[in-house]
Design goal:
With 1077 residues, this protein is of the alpha+beta class. The protein contains 20 helices and 52 strands.
Length: 1077
């Protein structure tokens, strides 16, 4: 070959834009040229529903309109349906294309009988059954009852690869749920559901596919993406465009054989020879760092736009599809979190769980991950709840898989408690994965890989996938973004790409796995301007790589304290009833464990520690802490039929247990005494002092009540508290001279609440300045003094049919005088607002840069100013039982029994009470609500007194036990020493043989009690635990009660039989001691 002397055929330089745009034509499934391009050859042959080769019949499970869509009769077991059909008890009718099925939330069964033409079978090629009924479905083998694969509807996941068999006869069932992947939202997915939607049968066909054409589709798609998305100045981009165009030139729509020629051409020019093979991931230059690790997952929201009942079916659909994919793709690895979901699967489909899923776990393809019971909210659950999320989650994983997770997997949640690092550390977890923080709408979080340190200093190696999604489609662009958007690449340049359909479940598809093979192949061949993508390295391998390349994590930047999520601040308040029941459930479970532990020790013959019942109640409580349920972002049926009845049942069953335990402890005898479940007030004795007589003075403007400690003035016109004065010192705690609220404390205020989107989730910054004080007062009256309290009742008119009744009372009981609180009970009657936010304000005579908010086992300090955009973002924050605003010499705490939203700015403290979003639950928070809160004015700074008073407001139930048990009961566990150390919970050791726990892992023939304490205010502290139990050994244990962290010394008190256990706690330390006796 030689260079031509004369040019007779001039060539032009292709115009980049035009040649790039042309590429879309080749694989476009619509448009003008479909039949002139590759899609023409996708099928070799196809037979659509004809009731001969493809026979499809259907059976509708009865569904009475208006009835509960989650009751078990609406979702019969597979076994019962298949058995009934075999007995000819069900009427299956012929189905037709476009036929509607429904209504929403009902179940339709299909029976599929296929009769494949012999020449198709003889080809030996993989054949397909295609199905799309716009809803979610699962293929069930009628012989084994095992799920095979799932259909997602509306074009997503529509193919079942038929197992090869010689006679071409197939018979199987499809169970479909009449909802989409994202529920049945009307108009928009996050709107309230249309409960009368019907789902149309779009596709039912057998297909003999052209696998070469399908292969070329993926090849060309990735090549075209490289041509479009690689940097303009890279030769790889230009070459990809040239090759793709030449491929189109080679293609002949009249000649199927040209497909193979196109494939061979592309492969010879741009891919390595392993592009269709899992070996592709071991090719290429090993000296080049991997920049993207692909991890398969499917985020299944445990309830959201669908109920728990549907999630149970989403799990089996999603996971069975994944197990099938694993057989085809050996490199494929998939992670799934949430012990609850595994438990449901085990209950509903034990054979699939044991015979299919467990082997996949053993073969390191299916990875249970996360360690928590559900992917929980971390703002609102109590400290003990978070501890139990890990306790039950990890113990479940250990029991069924023999492993525990060392990664807390929480891609999607609405805020991150500053105690997560410590609780994880105590639960065998030292790594964290999340993603949602990238949704911040004010400040961009600065790291992708970093060390997150909690308030006690414990740290987690943390990664946020740089692609900013946990549901990537494994597009070329997803891989590029994961590589390019890495904010920590000066320390560590790689990131995780979490791929797979998610939120509504689903998971990775064949197409995603094929695309990733091509992307890696292109990188092997053309260098790493195409990121080096690795599939087949698990999450642990990724974190190990981080440690290896960052000097064991020491080189990484640190983020201290909470990871405040700058979004979804309305979730501290939405769905008030669920939040109130959650607080109550947590309190009741604490009380039951407190009493049951002691009763099981005092009356071992007549009382058995109800561990099975407690596990069940905890499981249900933890389930309702899922990150859409407790925050309030689910549709109405979740609250109405599931979460609220479930939590109400927890409360009722706890009450039954408490009643029973009191009977065991002979609380009904004459000689009984009253006990509490708080260590500092356990034995309340019987020496109740006569209350003092309150003094109520009336002036022109005010009623002033005095109990000898405080003077509290209530304005007769506004019903607000205009003064709280310490009688001895003259200190005034209320400020009505300055700031925006000059009306007084307990002033109700309604804010406009129309966020940009996400109604149940968000309340936006601009709402803060659009408000109206409620000053239409119907009545202000003095209440009769009874039961050791005196007070004033105020009735505030909100609208024609909505009122607020608020009772402001002072204790006159002498025992309570040294820590006097102004107690308020507010009943909002018939709250019926639309997009309004009700709060209550307290203008206080305090000035400080920060306020303190109770969080799990500690406090968080947050700014009371708007200096920086990071401070502005915290215009509404989460708290638990109290918020405190203090100067050096004085302060005010606001305590509550069921609320979580708060803000403190300037001289104004503000407790958030009720919202009224209209989506996704159109009736959220409507109705009547009772809320208790207290104002605690105090000398000096925040102290243990606030912590204790907040406990007393919540753990206020008193119990009667026989005097005979009195001192023994109290002396089982006591604590003395620094008062900021709180003895929070006691329970029986989970592995005590005698209690026979379903979560026991290493049964021990001893008696034990676990005692949880924490340091509540942030300072090293000393205390002594005292017990009358015949101690053999005391150990400090981890949160799972599995690992001994420390042997603890103890000594006998010379004067009696008690044992002393001296303890020292770091600032904000959570410690669990196991007493073995
Ligand atoms: Zn989610």
């Amino acid at each position: 070959m030689s260079f031509d002397r004369v040019n007779y055929d001039p060539k032009f330089k292709p115009v980049k834009g035009i040649y790039e745009d042309r590429l879309r034509q080749f694989i476009s499934k619509g448009g003008d040229y479909r039949d002139l391009n590759l899609p023409k050859f996708y099928d070799k042959q196809r037979i659509v529903l004809d009731q001969n080769h493809v026979k499809l019949t259907w059976y509708q499970v009865p569904f009475e309109s208006g009835s509960s869509p989650v009751s078990p009769d609406k979702r019969p077991s597979w076994e019962s349906i298949i058995k009934a059909d075999k007995n000819n008890e069900l009427k299956f009718q012929n189905a037709s294309i476009n036929q509607p099925f429904g209504p929403s939330w009902s179940t339709t069964w299909f029976k599929v009988e296929l009769n494949i033409p012999q020449d198709w079978v003889d080809s030996g090629e993989q054949l397909i059954f295609q199905f799309d009924c716009s809803n979610e479905g699962v293929v069930i083998d009628p012989n084994t009852l095992n799920p095979q694969t799932a259909f997602s509807g509306n074009g997503e996941r529509t193919e079942y690869l038929l197992p090869k068999q010689k006679n071409g006869q197939y018979s199987f069932y499809i169970e479909t749920g009449n909802n989409g992947m994202f529920g049945c939202g009307e108009g928009s997915t996050i709107n309230p559901p249309d409960n009368n939607r019907y789902f149309h049968l779009q596709k039912a066909a057998i297909v003999w596919p052209d696998w070469n054409a399908r292969g070329l589709y993926i090849d060309f798609w990735m090549l075209g993406d490289a041509a479009r998305e690689l940097p303009d100045d890279s030769w790889q981009k230009n070459r990809a465009r040239t090759i793709a165009n030449k491929c189109m030139d080679l293609f002949d729509p009249m000649d199927r054989a040209s497909v193979l020629k196109c494939r061979e051409y592309i492969h010879s020019e741009y891919f390595d020879k392993f592009s269709d093979d899992d070996q592709v991931y071991s090719q290429g230059d090993p000296n080049i760092f991997t920049t993207v690790y692909g991890i398969g997952n499917c985020h299944i929201d445990t309830a959201w736009l669908w109920p728990f009942a549907e999630t149970r079916r989403k799990i089996v659909r999603s996971w069975s599809s994944q197990c099938t994919l694993m057989d085809e793709y050996p490199e494929y690895q998939f992670v799934a979190s949430q012990a609850q979901q595994f438990k449901w699967l085990l209950e509903d489909h034990p054979d699939f769980f044991n015979k299919v899923l467990v082997p996949k776990v053993q073969q390191s393809q299916f990875f249970p991950i996360g360690g928590s019971w559900v992917e929980n909210d971390t703002n609102i659950p109590s400290g003990e709840s978070l501890a139990r999320q890990f306790f039950l989650g990890q113990r479940f994983f250990l029991k069924y898989f023999g492993i525990k997770s060392d990664v807390f997997w929480l891609p999607d949640t609405f805020g991150y408690s500053s105690q997560i690092p410590q609780l994880c550390k105590l639960s065998g977890i030292d790594k964290f994965l999340t993603q949602k923080l990238s949704w911040n709408n004010i400040n961009s979080f600065p790291h992708s890989t970093f060390n997150w340190a909690g308030i006690d200093g414990s740290q987690l190696l943390t990664h946020m996938p740089p692609g900013n999604t946990y549901t990537a489609d494994s597009h070329f662009g997803d891989v590029l973004r994961t590589s390019r958007q890495n904010k920590s690449s000066e320390f560590y340049g790689a990131g995780l790409m979490l791929y797979g359909k998610g939120d509504g479940g689903g998971g990775p598809t064949r197409e995603m796995l094929e695309k990733m093979r091509r992307i890696r192949s292109m990188s092997n061949r053309n260098g790493n301007v195409i990121p080096k993508l690795q599939v087949g390295t698990n999450v642990d391998g990724f974190y190990q790589d981080v440690l290896k390349r960052t000097n064991n994590g020491n080189d990484l930047p640190t983020w201290c304290g909470e990871l405040y999520f700058e979004f979804h601040r309305g979730t501290y308040t939405s769905q008030a009833q669920t939040k109130r029941l959650m607080r109550l459930s947590e309190v009741k479970l604490h009380d039951v464990e407190w009493l049951a532990t002691k009763a099981s020790i005092l009356c071992p013959d007549s009382f058995k520690y109800p561990v099975e019942k407690l596990s069940e109640l905890w499981e249900n409580t933890l389930l309702c802490q899922f990150h859409d349920v407790l925050p309030g972002s689910c549709i109405e049926i979740v609250y109405k039929y599931e979460a609220i009845p479930m939590l109400q049942k927890v409360v009722n069953e706890c009450d039954n247990l408490l009643e029973h335990i009191q009977t065991v402890l002979k609380g009904n005898t004459e000689s009984s005494l009253t006990v509490s479940t708080l260590s500092w007030q356990e034995n309340l004795g019987s020496n109740v002092q006569a209350p003092i007589v309150p003094n109520i003075e009336e002036s022109t403007d005010n009623y002033t009540i005095s109990n000898g400690v405080l003077n509290v003035s209530v304005n007769k016109n506004l019903g607000t508290i205009t003064s709280i004065k310490d009688i001895n010192t003259g200190t005034e705690y209320i400020d009505i001279e300055n700031g925006r609220n000059k009306n007084g404390a307990n002033q109700f205020v309604i804010f406009d609440d129309k966020p940009l989107s996400w109604q149940a989730w968000d309340t936006e910054l601009y709402s803060v300045n659009q408000f109206k004080y409620l000053t239409d007062i119907e009545e202000v009256k003095v209440l009769p003094t009874t039961d050791g309290v005196c007070g004033i009742e105020v009735i505030v008119k909100v609208s024609e049919d909505c009122k607020i009744r608020t009772k402001i009372t002072l204790p006159t009981d002498k025992a309570k005088l040294d820590e006097t609180t102004v107690d308020i009970t507010t009943t909002v009657e018939n709250w019926n607002a639309r997009n309004k936010f009700l709060k209550v304000e307290f203008p206080v005579n305090i000035r400080n840069d920060t306020a303190s908010y109770e969080t799990q086992f500690g406090i968080m300090k947050r700014p009371t100013h708007y200096n920086t955009s990071w401070d502005v973002a915290k215009f509404e924050v989460c708290h638990h039982k109290f918020a405190d605003y203090s100067e050096y010499t004085k302060g005010v705490s606001i305590l509550n029994n069921c609320k979580y939203g708060f803000s403190t700015h300037g001289n104004l403290m503000r407790l958030s009470l009720l919202r009224s979003p209209k989506a996704p639950d159109a009736h959220a928070d409507m109705g009547t609500h009772e809320i208790k809160y207290s104002i605690y004015p105090h000398k000096g700074q925040l102290s243990y007194k606030t912590v204790r008073l907040a406990h007393e407001l919540n753990y206020n139930q008193k119990f009667r036990i026989s005097k005979e048990f009195g001192s023994q009961f109290n002396n089982i566990i006591r604590i003395i020493g620094d008062e900021n150390v709180i003895l929070s919970n006691i329970k029986r050791g989970e592995d005590d043989v005698i209690i026979n726990s379903p979560y026991a892992l290493k049964p021990e023939n001893t008696n034990s009690m676990v005692v949880r304490v924490y340091e509540s205010l942030g300072g090293e502290s000393h205390a002594k635990l005292i017990t009358n139990l015949p101690l053999q050994r005391v150990v400090k244990v981890d949160n799972l009660e599995l690992e001994v962290l420390e042997e603890v010394n103890f000594s006998k008190t010379p004067s009696n039989d008690d044992f002393n256990i001296p303890i020292t706690l770091r600032a904000f330390e959570i410690a669990s001691y196991k007493f073995i006796f």
